[in-house]
Design goal:
The protein has about 550 residues and is an alpha+beta fold. Strands 18, 19, 20, 21, 22, 23 and 25 form a seven-stranded mixed sheet that branches.
């Protein structure tokens, strides 16, 4: 009887596994795009939808449920990426330079300009306090670092998809294939906002194996997924799990305007970044990107949906960056309480318009504060973040049709979206148009800032205008790693006082990714200098 029960349970498990994998079908050998007609450029990647049923069903998962055949067929397209980065440190006035630098150690109090008097002496005193009376240490003019990550070939001519943070600021990129071959690579395009990057092998061999890109919208919570990559430098590592959840955004990265992560319990560790997340048909459905800190828990990883990556790949290849659509509205999620206040059903979904940019695209079309946007081009809008991502993917100049609720009545409004502002100052202050109103964001530092209003200043026991308040800090961002915490007040940036968020935005806009922002922060009655590398996700 016990043997019969065991056999029944085994049959039930296998049937469930095959059902979840849609007949357990896996892709065949890494696919290659069909030859393009004469005079036309070959496609950048292979779409799963373009494959014939025969191609999609040539390999079945064996009865015991092993994914070994799947791994064998797709692992040839997964690569290991190692990078070298050289960051030049801007000279800090009042600090001694390296023996090869141009500056000298600061002099005593009251010295000549540039020789350590005044503010320079205060800076020196700060270091002496924490270095036991010793002078400030010498600061090297450049830092050299290295990192490891993963990626995957999407075309037989050497195009590789990975994370932006894997190759950001890299001066040298070395790619190792599964067969051990090593090749230099160059960056083709990067999009920090989605953490997606496209690189290409230099002088690649012919007919490289490549993956097939699937449909991440079709993946469901509970579907099995396979992660391949090089965690901790251990190449060709495979882990199996399920899709734990979809549409993870601000709860994972508060400053991630376009984040829409897939959550998985397939083990993802340091070095997996940029690697593929496959469904059981061997199609890539995500790019492994982030994990919850091991100190907080395990089994929680996140991947960029492959559909999001596919939507920007053409721009990365052609222009090296991404331009996005812009409507010119400030929005927030329509909560149950807000829905009730506007006389709408409590389960109504949409994005509530908080404000409209004067003379912006939406303003010209008649969008008003208090409107609830429920659809764009017929596609339902579930939240403010959903609206932001939808509009961002519309090419500038293209027409969109909005469905809005105003006074309980539906209205149709149309306008041509503009190009989202991408100047450095706008990016630094987080001015990206369709944003939830939670304070001015500085993605380059990984913080959300707010001006010190009289009320806030009174609560903190400071004077209005004596700095800016840190309202939120992005987990694992540059500021968080440097020790910046919510509630701190930034009073100086690069030795200059700041009084408003605009002061911070303008200063950061003049800095390049990799530069170091020297902040002086107040916590209670204590003041301290903190060095924060500029540059979003690192």
């Amino acid at each position: 009887m016990r043997r019969i029960i065991r056999r029944s349970l085994s049959i039930t498990f296998i049937a469930a596994l095959l059902a979840c994998s849609q007949d357990g079908r896996a892709a065949t050998e890494p696919q290659r795009p069909a030859a393009a007609p004469a005079g036309r450029e070959a496609p950048l990647f292979v779409e799963a939808a373009q494959q014939s049923p025969q191609q999609q069903a040539q390999i079945a998962v064996p009865a015991q449920g092993s994914v070994a055949p799947l791994i064998e067929k797709v692992q040839g397209a997964v690569v290991n990426i190692s990078t070298t980065t050289v960051v030049k440190h801007p000279p800090v006035r009042g600090m001694p330079q390296s023996p090869h630098g141009r500056g000298q150690a600061p002099g005593g109090r009251g010295g000549a300009p540039g020789q350590g008097g005044g503010d320079d002496q205060e800076f020196q005193d700060f270091f002496e306090k924490f270095f036991g009376g010793r002078p400030a240490p010498q600061m090297p003019e450049e830092f050299r670092g290295s990192s490891l990550g993963s990626g995957f070939l999407i075309s037989p001519d050497g195009f590789i998809l990975t994370n932006n943070h894997v190759v950001q600021d890299a001066t040298d990129i070395l790619v190792r294939l599964t067969d051990g071959g090593e090749f230099k690579a160059e960056t083709v395009g990067r999009d920090p906002a989605t953490d997606v990057a496209l690189i290409r092998l230099v002088n690649p061999p012919k007919n490289l194996p490549n993956v097939v890109l699937g449909d991440s919208d079709a993946i469901r919570q509970g579907d099995f997924v396979l992660a391949l990559g090089s965690p901790f430098g251990l190449r060709n590592t495979a882990t199996l799990g399920i899709i734990s959840a979809k549409h993870r955004g601000r709860e994972v990265n508060p400053t991630g305007t376009y984040d829409d992560f897939l959550q998985t319990d397939a083990a993802i560790n340091s070095g997996n970044s940029g690697g593929p997340l496959f469904n059981l048909r061997g199609e890539v459905v995500g790019i492994n990107t982030a994990i919850v800190s091991p100190q907080l828990g395990s089994g929680v990883g996140f991947a960029v949906p492959i559909n999001l990556a596919k939507s920007i790949l053409p721009q990365l290849r052609e222009k090296g960056k991404v331009t996005r659509g812009y409507a010119g509205v400030s929005i927030t999620d329509l909560s149950r309480d807000l829905a009730q206040g506007f006389g709408l059903p409590p389960d109504q979904k949409g994005a509530l318009v908080q404000g409209v940019v004067p003379r912006g695209p939406a303003a010209k079309a008649g969008v008003q504060p208090g409107d609830v946007i429920v659809a764009v081009n017929g596609k339902p809008v579930a939240s403010g973040s959903d609206l932001t991502r939808t509009v961002a993917m519309v090419p500038p100049g293209s027409k969109v049709d909005l469905t809005v609720l105003r006074g309980g009545q539906k209205k149709q409004l149309s306008f041509a979206v503009a190009q989202r502002p991408d100047d450095e100052e706008a990016i630094a202050r987080g001015d990206t148009g369709e944003e939830e109103q939670k304070g001015d964001k500085s993605p380059k530092l990984g913080v959300t800032l707010a001006d010190l209003t009289p009320q806030i200043a009174r609560q903190l026991g400071v004077e209005p205008g004596e700095g800016v308040l840190v309202r939120d800090v992005a987990a694992s961002g540059p500021a968080a790693r440097a020790g910046i915490e919510p509630g701190m007040i930034i009073v100086e940036l690069n030795r200059k006082p700041v009084k408003t968020v605009q002061d911070v935005a303008q200063a950061i806009a003049k800095m390049k990714d990799g530069d170091v922002a020297l902040l002086r922060v107040r916590r209670g009655q204590d003041l301290a200098y903190v060095a924060v590398p500029v540059g979003g996700r690192q």
